[in-house]
C-alpha cells in the first residue's frame, strides 16, 4: 500500500510520509545517555507521541536500554489509591507489549510490590530496574492529563525513587505533555499555596519543546510524495503551504492529504502538479471542515487565560495584565500563539483565520445580505458600499451584539469581520494580520483579482486617526493601490446608537482613504 500523509495518530514509517523522529529534539539522545529526567512539551498533534514511540523502539533496538512509551490519557479517576494500581497494571501491559521477554517486568502482584497504593508505582519501577539486565528508560505520554491528585502522587513517587539512586530505579524518565512541568502546579493548587513537602515538581533537569517543521523540512516531506508517486508540488505551492501552516505538523499533513492522498483529493492525478491556488483552496476546506484538531484548539478560546492573550493580539493592543506572561506561556504551549518576526501573533495564518470565524459564527450566520450587491464593476469588492451598509447594521444591532460578545475589547473588530466574511464567503478571501503592539488589525480582501486593505483601530487618543491614516496609506501602496479604508471604533462613545457611524474621505500621501468612525 502506498504511503500517505497522516493526520490521525502516531506516524509509522511503513505507512506514512514522515521525518526522522528525533530531528526536532536532538538533545533527547544526550539526556537519556546521561541518565537524566526531563520534560518534553508541545501543542497537540505536533508529533510528541510519534517521537517517543519511535525513540523508545530505537533505544531498545540499540541493545543498550529497555525503553517503553506509555500513555496516561486513559487514567481519569480522581482517587490515587484507586488509580495507582490500575496505572501500574497499564504500565506493565505496555512494557510486555514493547519489550522482549528478557527485558519485560516479571508478573508481580500488588501484594508483592506492597499494599501501599501510594507507593506501588515507585516499588514497581524499583523492582523492575533491579531485575532488568539493561537500564530502564520510560516515556510517560499525556502526563499532564492526569487528575490533580493522581498527578501529584505520580510525581512524588518518581521524585522519591530518583532521589534514592544509585539504588535501582529507571535510568531516565521523560514527562511528555502539552505543558511544561512548571505549569503542572497550576493544575493542582493555587500558586501561592504549598503542598507541605519537598516539591514533587522539582524532578526534571531539562525541558524540551518540540518545534514545528522549518521550510526545508516541509519541502522534504512533500518531496517524499513526489519521489514515490511522481506528483510535483510547484515551488510557490510549497512556499504557500509553509506560509499558511508555519510548519505546524498536523496542518502540513492535513493540507497535503487534502491535496493529494485523501479519497476526494483536490489534485488526484499524479501527472498534475499541485499549484498555489490549490493550496489556498485546501486551506479554505480545512477551515470549513474544522477537523478534530482545530475543534480541540478553538474549544479553548473561552478560557479566561486564553482570552487574556488572544484579545490583545486581535486588537493590536499592549496588555499590562499581571498574569500576562504566565498566560502567554500557557497559550503558546497550546500552540495558539507564537512570536514571529519579533511580534506576538496567532501561531499561523490558518489559526488566524479560524479563530475570528469561530468567535463570530453566530453573528455571521445571522446577517441577511446578498453578497452580489457589493461586487464592483471590475469584479472587486465595493468596500465603500459595504461600509455604508455596515453603518446601518451597526446602528441597529451593534449595542446588542457588543453586550453578548465574549471578547469585549475585540468585539467591534469581530462584528465587522463577521459582516465582511459574510459578504466575501465563497467568492473571495479575507487575510487577517494582527499582532500585539501594532495598535491595529489589518484586513486584506481579495475578490475578482483585486486586493483592498481595511484597517481596524480602537480610539485611544489624539494620535489614533493620524497613525491610522499613515498605516493605511503605507499598506495600500504595498498592494499597488491608491485607495484604502480605515475603521475607528470608539469604545467610550456616548453618541446615541442610531446616530453612530460617520463616513468621510481623507487624503494621506496620495492615497484616498475612506474613514468610518463608529
Portion in beta strands:
15-25%
Number of structural units classed as domains: 3
Trace the largest sheet across and list its strands: 8-9-10-11-13-12
Mean pLDDT reading: 89
CATH class of the largest domain: Alpha Beta
The helix count comes to 19
Alpha carbon gap, first and last residue: 59 Å
Q: Count the strands? A: 13
The main pleated sheet reads as: 6 strands, mixed
Q: What percent of the residues sit in helical stretches (DSSP H or I)? A: 40-55%
Coarse shape: elongated
Contiguous runs where pLDDT drops below 50 for at least 5 residues:
189-199
What does this structure look like?
The strands form three sheets. A six-stranded mixed sheet has the order 8-9-10-11-13-12, with helices on both faces. A five-stranded parallel sheet has the order 2-3-4-1-5. A two-stranded antiparallel sheet has the order 6-7. It has three domains: 27-209, Rossmann fold, CATH 3.40.50.300; 215-289, Helicase, Ruva Protein, domain 3, CATH 1.10.8; 352-517, no CATH class. It contains 19 helices and 13 strands. The protein has helices spanning 27-33, 48-61, 80-98, 110-113, 120-131, 148-164, 184-188, 215-229, 235-245, 249-261, 276-289, 292-298, 304-315, 324-334, 349-359, 361-365, 383-404, 411-424, 464-478; strands at residues 37-41, 66-71, 136-141, 172-177, 206-209, 337-340, 343-346, 428-434, 441-447, 450-458, 483-489, 502-508, 511-517. The chain has 518 residues and is an alpha/beta fold. It is elongated, with a radius of gyration of 27 Å. β6 (337-340) and β7 (343-346) form a beta hairpin.
